[in-house]
Design a protein that fits this description.
This protein is an alpha+beta fold. The chain has one domain: Alpha-Beta Plaits, CATH 3.30.70.100. The protein has 2 helices and 4 strands; from the N terminus they run E-H-E-E-H-E. It has a 4-stranded antiparallel sheet with strand order 2-3-1-4, with helices on one face. The radius of gyration is 10 Å and the shape is globular. The relative contact order is 0.32. It comes from Ectopseudomonas khazarica. InterPro entries: Heavy-metal-associated_CS, HMA_dom, HMA_dom_sf. Pfam families: HMA (PF00403).
Length: 65
Amino acid sequence: MQQFKVSGMSCGHCARAVTQAIKALDPAAQVDVDLAAGVVQVDSDVPAAQLEAAIRGEGYEVSAP
């Protein structure tokens, strides 16, 4: 399980955008978005750097949890 601290997420649309970006890389990924904590947990074999890039591509800042 990989965990990312994501800034700028505030609603269900944000959660869906991040989830869809990750699933575009790995359709089988399990994604859990905690809007209140600003944390995204991903169960996937895709390297963290690629997942971070996908999240950044949606316009969000990613930092170490």
